[in-house]
Amino acid sequence: MKVCYNQETCFLEFILHSKPILMTRKETANFIHLAALSVQKAIDSNPLSRKSVTQLVPDLYVGRNQLQTAFKQLTKQTIKRYRLIKRMEAARDLLSSEVESVKEVALQCGYRNPGNFNKDFKEVFNKTPGEWLNDNLKNKYNGYNQNSHGDG
Asked: In terms of domains, do 40 and 69 share one?
């Protein structure tokens, strides 16, 4: 006999078990929370991935709505927003290296259109990648000038 509190919680067959698993509401809630943590960890470890959530963490066995709700409770953001922020943080790190152009970073982040990359970057950081780079270079240059005019 399966315990189901609604249709979406009838995911209670694990790969390792051939029989249904009986879970209380609390156990089900914990299971869903662990699924949300798994998604967060997968995004954090590979922020530039363009794979879907089910491709990132294939053995979730959690309904989409339940996962979205648990993820938002965990991170205070939707999965989509969290992924965007992590992707843009990774893009900012690539831009900081000054090895890559904005266009190259956009491509590495999975954008075919640099305009869409610029829009998303600005949505997260309130600056375009070019503005961010200019500010970053100014700060680096100012720090260099201040350090080079020491006691000398």
From this structure: yes
Alpha helices per DSSP H over 13-128: 25-45, 53-56, 64-75, 79-96, 102-108, 114-125
Contact 24, 85 (CB under 8 A): no
- Expressed as residue numbers, the domain containing 56 is 7-76
Q: Are 22 and 1 in contact (CB under 8 A)?
A: yes
Residue-wise pLDDT tens digits, 36-88: 999 999 999 999 998 888 888 887 778 889 899 999 999 999 999 999 999 99
Can you tell me the distance from the alpha carbon of 81 to that of 86, in angstroms, rounded to the nearest whole number? 9
Burial (CB count within 10 angstroms: exposed 0-12, middle 13-18, buried 19+), residue 72: middle
